[in-house]
Amino acid sequence: MAPKFKDGDVVVAFSGKWVSWAHTAVAYAAFLGALFAGLCLHYHKIVENEYYGYPQEWFPSVSATIGDRYPERSVFQIFIAITSGPRFALVFLWYILTARPNSVLPKIVAGTGIFRTITCGGWTYVTSTDDHGWHDIFMISYLVATLPWTLGCLALSPNNLKAVRYRKILASCFFGTLVPLVYFFIQHKVHKVAGAYTIYAFFEWALILFDVGFDAVTALDFESFELVVRDIKGASRGCAIASKIDKTGSQLVADTVAEKQKDKPIGRAFSQVFSLNDALDAIADVYSGFVFWSMLTSLGLVVWYFPLWHMGISGYEVIVMCTVSPFLLGIPALRSLVIKHIRTVHFLSLAGLLAYLIPSPELRLFAVGLGVSLSCLSWSAILYAERSQSARLEGRILAWSIGLIASGIAKFAFWTNNPIWPIVHAQNGGWNNLGFALAVLAVLRSTRRVNVSGGDVDNVGGPKGSPILAGFGLAGLFFGLHSLLSDSSTMTLWVWEGYPVRGPIAANGVLTILAMGVGVAFGTIYREIVTTWMYFLAACGGAYLLTSFGNWAGYIGGLELAVSLMSMAIPLISSAVRHEPATTFGVGFLVYNIMVLAHVWVVAYAFVPGGPIMREHTDWVMAATMALVGAGLYAAPKSRRPIDSRKKAQRHNPNQKSFYHSYILVALELLAISVAYLRFPTNDYTPHHPEEKSLTAGIWTIHFSLDNDMWSSERRVRDLIKEMEVDVIGLLESDLQRIIMGNRDTTQFLAEDLGMYVDYGPGPNKHTWGAALLSKFPIVNSTHHLLPSPVGELAPAIHATLDAYGEFIDVVVFHSGQEEDPEDRRLQSEYLAKLMKESPRPLILLSYLVIRPGEGNYNTYVGEKSGMRDIDPSDWDRWCEYILYKGLKRTGYARVSRSTITDTELQVGKFVVGQAEGSNEQMGEDQVAQGLRFPSLFRAWRTLVYLGSNSTRVIENTSWIDDTFIVRTSSDSSLAGTAEVEKAIVHYDNQTKKLPSLIAHQLSRTTFCSIKQSLAHLSRDGFPAQICGGDNAWSVALTGIGGVVSNAPEESSSSTLSAYNAASSTPQTATPQTTAAPVASTTLKSAPSVVTVGNTVVVTAPGETTTAPAPTAEKGKSKGPNTAGIAAGVVVGFAAVCAIAGGLFLFLRHRRRRAVEEEYKHNASINNFTGSQKPSTPGSVSDARLEPSVMMQRRQSDGSIADNQDYSRRILKVMNPDGT
């Protein structure tokens, strides 16, 4: 448009609608220009995907068009760069149009608009070819932000019926397109349907058209704007300014302009000052809440370790009572001392975060107990201290509530493990150092200003109510939040009922997190509704649905309960702080502990005094929880009568700090949605040896995913399952969804990392210790059974039908009752035998039976009553785990030592689908196809002995019998049993400067220890003699052979390659080694020697050796998803984009404010934003667990400190018995 000159005033003016039209035209040009160029230049290449090309696929997707080829990529990027100017202007004008006094929604929408613009640039200029991970992060962030942008624009639309109608139509089309978009993407990605990606591409292009079109509607609203460029000095006409403008006159003009702008939207927009201090305070408070919930949720987990190993009450359970520390606040002098020194108490509570540095389980428990005790004390004191300042009290409660949400998101991102728990460390997924450093900064920030007096509560009308009932309300709130909402998957597993899927899955746990956020917002805005009895009855209805129904019906009830509990936090805690904290918080945590015990008693009734009273009564626990919450609501004030108009205005307008909590909450919810997107299962899994139609099935009791040294064991479990190439596995003692077990779910990590379908089994409300099924084959149908248990604990079972190579195969995972309940086990054997007999399909039983082979109930499980066969009738040394089968050809059987991963071995059987059962005859391994053999990693060993005189001896023949390492040697018979060995030392390789993975074993069978390769910096004689057995001990390295002994000697009658160990309560074997750096290895020159033990052939290594370099660690690396990369990428990417967007917005607003309101310069000083010092990076924390004296005193640990490493594992028994 031609410029208009008005006597040195207006240079150019144009309608605001042209901003919208410019944005629309250039945006469409970017996409359509790239499409036109791609179709003309690279048609066949851009329509091709990983499965199909032309002619099955004949139209390109958006990502293939804009990111894969030159020059279409450049065309797109150039036009997107041009679009950025109109885009920022569009967002700015929309904010000016919709801004209202005391309204925060326009600010949120504007911030979301800027965030979308920046993330659009992210996925535009970081293509999937450049960095697929960051491209996806930016794209997901952009799509997630589209929802609040769209809904916010609809909510703020001016009274323009035509514009509102167009927005609704385009928004409906956009979100409606997502359903077929996802459907056809699944058809392409999972089912590999030809042509599905082309249809998907059309819907993807439709999203682009609708997205840009939605913003184009702003042209109808911006017609009321005129953008004007003024020349206030006449420079555009070439006029010289002869003299400076009078300073007084300039100030007068500025004052006049500012006064006129105050009543306009732009003036109102910049009249409210952003406070960096308040924003940082809110972030610090929320992180402190996150730390509180992280420590509290870890307490039960570390306590549980001790009764687990004692199989009953251990005495350490008393530590759970550390939460009643608020009773100490009943002493006035001590209460005053705690409040005045609240920062010191908070700092001391961080001992719970540093507990991971302590290798001893007992001392680690005490450190966690100390941290939780001080944390409960400090939070109770600080809430009481802020009670006279309602705004600050509300902020603390919001931070505490949002901290729970942050803890849930952290567990959601880390597969139900909290990365700062004391059971994790850097090697098994922990972020402990970072968590502690941030906690220190948060404490320093959040404790700067605390009301040390405690203050008097304003008389808001009505009596205070009963402090005991208020404490009951806190107990119900604490327990409800902890037991149901501390993990996003808890309620999804309550309602899980097997395949086909009829309810939520793990990735749907994001709905729980969203519901919690809704509850926080609702409780902040509608306080009066939350405290009504109708609202409480609605919450009770949700609790009833969750307890009584499964699938989506039960989960919807759970979501309603989540909203209700989170919304009640502010009124219940606000009511409690009106009384003495020793009474309310002390009673609250005491009753909370009682509820925790009751919550355990319902399943552990067979091991605790008075247990049968609570047997299987989760309904009682839920009813008691709601009754406690109701008692708290009864004690809460029902009215908030204002004293004066000023206080009334403050109550009707949320305080400014709550706005920052709202921003944090929205950011966390968007992060949760991003994590859910990344975790959604692909359901595109392949068995290990499909060419042989092989099915490898295993059974393992994982002992609640805690290893022998109280470290989280799921990564070590993952490693062994992967190394044994297991296709189907049953896991027992797998139900971790209770407070005492940390509300975890190991199957989520295993399924996603290993690429397997998963059936969690009977949920936590079914009162079992858990049984789960993971399968590389699709699970067509599954049914959960609770077998007869009139006396003892319930016996869970899963009966599943798998689609294995086009044939239906049944698999049953079962955990029987205890040895002390023979009648239970008899009834269970009859029930299961009937179930297996009636199955018309081939069937595999993966079980824990508590019987001896050939005795008692064994004959019910095996034989005519069940139609089942034992995988190895000759294996007499079994008690717990059994694999039975029918209708399949058995080709192999193995028993693998559990090392220190758990307390039970892994049993594995190999089968061929579609072949007859065969006989029990054995055959040579050379007659067995490679895909039907067990991995050679587990089946033969070199054996070296390192002596105290720095010499090395080679032992020709070794075996393990009855927990004793037996040495037979022909080269130097004097070695066996003599006192020549002065002490066990570490062999130090002078070339690689690395240590081999060692297993040290004393002939007296009393000592078993391990030495990690990470100790290579120590000298060879750096360990005291007593560490590995004393002066008369052998230091033995079992380092593997890498395939040299893959063929059995011709004279052998069996292909078994095994070092046999008679099963016992503490089998002494290790795990396979995968080093982080090359380590010298030894190659055998002569054939292995053979020793016969019963019906098992034991093959051991001879003495003559040569040394050769070992393969690098790349071969041992996990191929699973990059856990830290996904989580760190999402978190850091989101934070960085938010920081950039916030910085740009604040900078523009600051400049405008200085121009129109000079007198407010001090409120927006640059120093507020740049004066603070960047905190220094915290130094590394020394890990005491790497000290030799510490490592050697752990509970038979051979590597739980570095779970990403493998250790020399020996097969207990490997058989390929079926040769027909």
UniProtKB/TrEMBL annotation:
Entry superkingdom: Eukaryota
Single GO cellular component term: endoplasmic reticulum
SUPFAM superfamilies referenced in this protein's UniProt entry, alphabetically: DNase I-like (SSF56219)
Ranges of residues in domain CWH43-like N-terminal: 16-224
Region ranges (Disordered): 1056-1077, 1102-1122
Protein name: Calcofluor white hypersensitive protein
Chloroplast listed as a keyword: no
Pfam families: 6TM_1st_PGAP2IP, 6TM_2nd_PGAP2IP, Exo_endo_phos_PGAP2IP, Frag1
One annotated GO biological process: GPI anchor biosynthetic process
Regions crossing the membrane: 20-41, 75-97, 137-157, 169-186, 198-220, 286-307, 313-334, 341-359, 365-385, 397-417, 429-447, 468-485, 505-522, 529-546, 552-573, 585-608, 620-637, 658-680, 1124-1148
Ranges of residues in domain PGAP2IP C-terminal nuclease-like: 693-931
Domain PGAP2IP first transmembrane stretches: 290-444
PGAP2IP second transmembrane domain span: 464-640
Keyword Lipid metabolism: no
Stretches with biased composition (Low complexity): 1062-1077, 1102-1113
